[in-house]
Amino acid sequence: MTQTILIIDDAPSMRLLVRDTLEPLGYAVVEACNGIEATALLDGTVFDAIVCDVSMPRMDGIAFLHKLRTHPRYAHTPLMLLTADSRESTRKAARAAGAQAFCIKPFLPKDLRKAIGKLCVGVTA
Fold first, then answer.
1. Does this model's pTM top 0.85?
2. Minimal CA–CA distance to 97: which of 60, 122, 125, 57?
3. Burial code of 99-122, b = ≥16 C-beta within 10 A, e = fewer?
4. What's the CATH number of domain 4-120, 1.10.8.80, 3.40.50.2300, 1.10.3210.10, 3.40.50.1220?
5. If I label 58, which of 34, 39, 48, 83 is the partner at 20 to 30 A Cα–Cα?
């Protein structure tokens, strides 16, 4: 069964890079440009993992993560923050909010593939 990844990033070029990294591996990709748009996608659709930027307009990644974790259907969906913000305070806030992985931009596609593979291990729809 195809696994579906939700990508949330305000930069179209970053969403394209993540999509182009994951689709050849057989993942289906859904995109949102900020946390508000992503929240609207929490309609029962199964996401096997979420890749989310931290710094976005309207609703940032940490706020989205807090909202995600209160939604019963998505409370345990694996989430990786993908960001240029490498501060330890951001990492701590991400972990406290429930992020399982943290990847710094710019990233190597092989590192993203490896991280997503780890997040999706054992995930069932």
1. yes
2. 60
3. bbbbbeeebeeeebeebbeebbee
4. 3.40.50.2300
5. 48
